[in-house]
Amino acid sequence: MTNQTPHAASRLERILAYMVAGVVGLSILAFLAVIIGTAAGAGADNGFGQGVWPAVLALPLFGLPLGFLLIIALLVMTAIRRAREARQNRE
Fold first, then answer.
1. Which pTM does this prediction carry?
2. Is 90 helix (H, G, I), strand (E, B) or coil?
3. How many domains does the chain contain in total?
4. Residue 1 lies in a domain
5. Which of 5, 23, 52, 78 is the S-S candidate for 67 at Cβ 3.0 to 4.6 Å?
6. pLDDT score of 47
7. Per the UniProt record, which residue ranges are transmembrane (predicted)?
8. How many CB atoms sit inside 10 A of residue 30's CB?
9. How confident is the model at residue 45 (pLDDT cuts 50, 70, 90)?
10. Is the pLDDT of residue 2 over 60?
11. Confidence at 7, pLDDT banded by 50, 70, 90
């Protein structure tokens, strides 16, 4: 049994993790803003079609799938790194 410390995440893995957190976090905040805006009556008389609302409405539509793809990319990168480390430890 060896006492090896786990390898730290690479810079790219950290960037992807922060991108996932940022994109998904903004999408959830936009979703909550739409819920609060609807409750406050901002959607009356096509209120969501003007100002910043179209961008707020579109953010979860694009942000959540993008966050999902970034999570998959992060999982693949981590699996490749771990397989490479396991192969090096066997040798």
1. 0.79
2. helix
3. 1
4. no
5. 23
6. 85
7. 15-40, 52-80
8. 19
9. confident
10. no
11. low
CB-side neighbour CA atoms (13 Å) of 83: 6
Three-state SS for 26-80 is HHHHHHHHHHHHHHHCCCCCCHHHCCCHHHHHHHHHHHHHHHHHHHHHHHHHHHH
Query: What 3-state class would DSSP assign to 17?
Result: helix
CA distance 47 to 34: 11
- Give the integer Cα–Cα distance in Å for 24 and 10: 21
Is position 41 within any domain?
yes
Tokens standing for residue 70: 């970034």
Which pLDDT value is given to residue 63?
96
Q: Which residue type is seen at 20?
A: V
Reading the block at residue 5, the tokens are: 């410390």
Is 4 domain-assigned? no
Domain containing residue 73: 11-90
